[in-house]
What we know:
By secondary structure, this protein is an alpha/beta fold. The chain has a domain at 235-345: Succinate dehydrogenase/fumarate reductase flavoprotein, catalytic domain (Flavocytochrome C3, Chain A, domain 1, Alpha-Beta Complex). The protein is built from 15 helices and 23 strands. The longest helix has 22 residues, at 479-500.
Amino acid sequence: MQKFDYIVVGSGLAGLYAAYKASFKGNVAVITKSFVRESNSFNAQGGIAAVTSFEDDPQIHKSDTLIAGRGLCEDSSVDVLVNEGPHRIQEIIADGMKFDTENGALALGLEGGHHKRRILHAGGDSTGRWITEFVISKVEEKENITVYENTSLLDFLVEDGVCYGVRCWSENPSLIGEEAGGNGKEVLLYANNVFLTSGGTSAIYARTTNPQTTIGDGLAVAYKNGCRIMDMEFIQFHPSGLYIKDSSKAFLISEAVRGEGAHLMGKDGKRFMVPIHELAELAPRDIVARSIYKQMYKDNMPYVTLSLKHLNKEEILSRFPSINAKCQEYGYDLTNEIPVAPAAHYTVGGVVSNMDGRTDIKRLYVCGEIAATGIMGANRLASNSLIECLVFANRAVEDSVKNGEPQRVPVFKEEYYRDEENAQFYQQLKVKVSEIMNAHAGIVRTEEGLKEGLRKIEELATELMMNRKVIGTVPVKEYYEDASWRLLIVASLIMNPALLRKESRGGHYREDFPCTDESYQVHSVQQMGKEITTAPVNRDYLVF
């Protein structure tokens, strides 16, 4: 039995920071599906939001967050974020993290939905990479943290509502031994506490800014084990993904570019955001993304233009070196005009947790994008995600100390095998699901479209059942088949509440119900084996 004090699933900022903090409490294993440097956190360009200026105040940060959240934020969770965020920033700066400075003080940027300059950056437009690299360096210093790359979550080891570890598939020789071969094998890892920090679901869409591994595996596994899932209809589409002809790739053009004064232009060369919102290009992301979508439809174009040609060229090149390099790679000049279009970017909902990361399963915590603490409401405020990772990973680790050692640890048996002949079927299904999501659960939705999308998902489920192989009488699970089911579960978890919510709010827009309806100022809640339901806002629903 391989036993740890902590197992962390996922290697984004929430997972790495949780591992680092947990290492002061015991030994830690981190498992990550691909590589430790492949995550949304690592790729994040924008920045991290926290009050660090005397001209700002946590209550103003809270107000901006609530406005963006469109009535679905949990007040107590937002209070924790805005009040503890500055302390976490001070802490990592004291540990050696270097943020960009200006005249000896922290350089503070402005992004959509913020009424004060409070966005900290590192490396200009590489904040996620710099802060993640910083935490990786701290993790690498700790001898009691072991990172297992190329190791995927299959399931939790759960009995009687308690999590005792994880079931995973690993191709990592240090975990499975050289003799296991290149296809890997199932491994059971036990722990006193399990932290699920596996990120969001946006790569389930055909056009996304996320790594292709971000398809909601952890969410589906949590759902299958009985965790409540909340507000999954709210998918945030980043307004400005670089448009690359004949490709579903969408390199993210940071909101900070618009924060520095870039303009969104239609085919006629005129700004279209000015009459739409008082903040124009810096309106909350859902408004900007939807406005771009409508302008594209109006212009009969697959993109709109982001213009920087009126800005100081040297300052743009200095401020956004990584974005400029990527634009040049595709033949565009960032200092002039570039084509952009929305792309699936952030999963607002997720696994229900309280303010200490606890879930419906004892000893299982969630942090980061996969967690639904009620901070984001119906729409995430720009740059709140990285600070959420630090604040709630810290709180979860501190809370976990209360659990101690389990009195008994059940013994679980291995259940999985992998048939490489099923790999192609899985890849084809993944493409089909992504096309269904783009067509029927994208920026603009309708009842007819959502029902058609769900019908297509059911067809794929039937096809998956027919493709199933039965091996003897022993109940075993095939790796690719299980991965396929997880994709279908995630697609359904997004579309079912989108069909239920007959209104438009935040990251959910129904063309057939374009107005906000106050009777829907509730959270959507889904749980395995139960009918989809709703829960009121600010009613201690997240208390465990």
